[in-house]
Amino acid sequence: MDFVELEAIEGLRWSWNSWPPSKSESAALVIPLSIMCTPLMQQAELPILPYDPVTCLRCGAVLNPYARVEYLSRIWFCSFCHHRNSFPHSYSNIGDTNLPAELFPTYSAVEYSKTAHGIPNSGSNSLNWANGLSSSSSLSSMVSSSAASVSDGDSRGVRPAFVFVVDACTPGDELGVLKNELLLVVEKLPETALVGLVTFDSMVRVHDLGFSECLRAVVFHGERELSSLQVAGFLLCLP
Ligand SMILES: [Zn+2]
Q1: Which CATH superfamily is 1-124 part of?
Q2: Rounded CA separation 210/192 (Å)
Q3: Residues 172-195: what's their mean pLDDT?
């Protein structure tokens, strides 16, 4: 299939149009593998698999068509950490001609109707957030439809969180348009949503949106390496 056509279907743009199958091939790439993803992209026929995903024991990544599979020994290699995983018992009949749907080459984007106990079901609600999108590509329209289906928080009190990361080197006129779009987006978010704003040029600024008396931001030098623990310390959000 043509890569441009595939991008229109999946919303993914690759630096390479394939996934390196092994650690050595991954390390040999001159240009690193990167994929630009369009979140919440409308997909007319997103397949729903009525069972739980098979995940990598080491990193938790989900089995997908890019994973290297050895059918005879019934193992698969994680695309992300290259860990060697065994298939669960329910996949014992797996083979070249008997593939689970998540390994179909055209099923690189699927939705699972995951169940609490791993019991297959015929759930049909898992696509609500994706199906409700309008066809417009503007940020605010994407969020207006998706926010409608974002609940104000679940039973554990976990609220939806949105962090906006803005490249401050963007030309002034584009930055103005982006700012207006972001304001519209924020307006349409659920009342209880947590919102963060990070801007970056040669410095990284984490803006304190809850401090309304004056503009306040924690500034990090763009060339200084900090551990996530140090960053958490500076942001006063250590556990
Ligand atoms: Zn893994």
Answers
A1: Zn-finger domain of Sec23/24 (2.30.30.380)
A2: 13
A3: 90
